[in-house]
Amino acid sequence: MDNKSENKSFRQSLGLFDSTMIVAGSMIGSGIFIVSADMSRLVGSSGWLLTLWIASGLITLMAALSYGELSGMMPKAGGQFIYIQRAFVNATAFVYGWTVFTVIQTGVIAAVAVAFAKYSAVFIPALDIEFLSVFDGKFTINYGQIYAMASVVLLTVINAQGINSGKKIQDIFTSTKLFALFALIILGIIVGMNNGVLQMNFENAWEASSTKLVDGKYLTIPLVGSAIIGAMGATIINSLFSADAWNNVTFIAGEIKDPKKNIPRSLFLGTLIVTSLYILANFSYLCLLPLHGNPDATTVTGQGIQFAENGRVGAAAASIIFGDIGLYIMAALIMVSTFGCNNGLILAGARVYYAMAKENLFLKKAENMNKNSVPSTALLLQCIWASLLCLSGTYKDLVAYSTFASVIFYIVTITGLFVLRIKEPNAERPYKAFGYPIIPALYILVSIAICTVLIIYDTRNTQMALICVVIGIPVYYFTVGKKKKV
User: Fold this and answer.
1) Residue 486 — pLDDT band, cuts 50, 70, 90?
2) Domain limits at 222?
3) Which pTM value belongs to this model?
4) Taking a C-beta distance cutoff of 8 angstroms, is the pair 67, 247 a contact?
5) Is 372 part of a structural domain of the chain?
């Protein structure tokens, strides 16, 4: 598919600001306001907690800098799918696209929609009410899940109206949540600097411990030596999820002005902005709330970061700043954040299935464009599956499945950078990967280490993600593989 034919289909209407808002907006969903509670229970240390967020930021920046070269070489709709196809073979590209559809993109959309519903329940308590329970309560559906599905449908309809509709939602919601998050960070640091909490949190900053629920009681176990490394590797999946989806801007390359320059720039700017905000947000939490807490406490300070009610660390921090109304302020902010996040995910994801269909690696109808120059069939298919995923598993499960699968294919894609340097040494490269070959190689090694630790310490969730990936292989060979030369 050449650039001319693609430009006839898509409208190039996104500038550098719009592209950066898609990177940042897709990254900032609900994770930064929730996952620190689980992370603090698993590592039990303010020093290691901040280290995890810094490490996640550096890992994400390394990947984004490496993707800059690939996006400059191949400024086409489909992004990462196109990079993998060119570096490897159709089978590898198909398995990636299959995983994006079954778990990566749709799983994140579902997780973010569930979080949107969870915080909407602060204003609409009826969303927490269950109306269906089967298999002796093993499978339940509440009104919140239906509400989450409705939000996915609404955003799909909006994005079907054209790229400008999606762009307006993205720019407005991302700008709003960036400003609000920055304001909360500044207020949190100002309010918290003189209350002694920060000093208390850093008195024993590197004494790690793991707090887990065993037989109905929370037990705290000190961590030393290799146990700290294992806990860090298993815990980092949370912060990596919060920093994920930065690559979505590559999916919509066909609709970005001057994509060879603007995609690498937006990748760097977006990931740098979000990484900085995430580290500062956690520092703000540590200024306001004790890291360690008691699950039976009735106050936010007594519960601490570890046992913030329903994991709502952001809401607990806001209540210290604003009092009782803080819960509602934070709930409103997270609703804005998750709604805007899902807009970017829904907008971008459909372009992958469009690109796959163009290469006869997906349902052919997925390449159909509506009158607004949008792949509406691909949007519809994504909407249906993501909506169904809203009914399956928990927020935590969806996070683990999608993030582990994402990291696997980030490794594959950045390995493709080395492959293309060998296969196509003279190809046009408007931007060359910063720090090549050291930074891309370091990213691959670190990510492989994280995946290995996760397989050991989070076997159930990683197995589920791997099964989704592996199923794509026979699906390819029993469908399109027989018709194509690989």
Assistant:
1) very low
2) 3-87+162-359+402-458
3) 0.86
4) yes
5) no
